[in-house]
Amino acid sequence: RGHQNSLEVMPIFFVLLLLGGVRHPLVAAGLGFVYIVARYFYFTGYSSGDPAKRLTLG
């Protein structure tokens, strides 16, 4: 289920990231990195099975 959530959001995010990266490549790279880190923490919390861990950073 966590993977499906990511697949639903990822295409539109990457399209917008690509469009923004044409004009502001450093900002887009930073936001892409933040997205990857946030997804890591989301998946870690989601796979733990504890809903309280989905909102924390570790």
Characterise this structure.
This protein is mainly alpha-helical and 58 residues long. It has one domain (2-54). It contains 2 helices and no strands. It has helices at residues 2-23, 25-48. The radius of gyration is 13 Å and the shape is elongated. It starts with a helix and ends in a 10-residue tail after the last helix. It holds the Pfam family MAPEG. One of its GO terms (molecular function) is glutathione peroxidase activity. This is MAPEG family protein. It is found in: Membrane. It is a multi-pass membrane protein.
List the helices and strands and how they pair.
Elements: H1 2-23, H2 25-48
Helix pairs in contact: 1-2
Keywords: Membrane, Transmembrane, Transmembrane helix
Pfam families: MAPEG
Membrane topology: Multi-pass membrane protein
- Unreliable runs: none
Helix content: over 70%
The outline comes out as: elongated
Q: What is the N-to-C succession of helices and strands?
A: HH
- Strand coverage percent: under 5%
Span between termini: 20 Å
Q: Could you give the count of β-strands?
A: 0
Helix/strand structural class: mainly alpha
Radius of gyration, in Å, reads 13 Å
Count of helical regions:
2
Return the average pLDDT rounded to an integer.
84
The profile of the biggest β sheet is: none
User: How many domains, as an integer?
Assistant: 1
InterPro entries: MAPEG, MAPEG-like_dom_sf, Membr-assoc_MAPEG
GO cellular component, one term: membrane
Transmembrane segments: 12-38
Keywords: Membrane, Transmembrane, Transmembrane helix
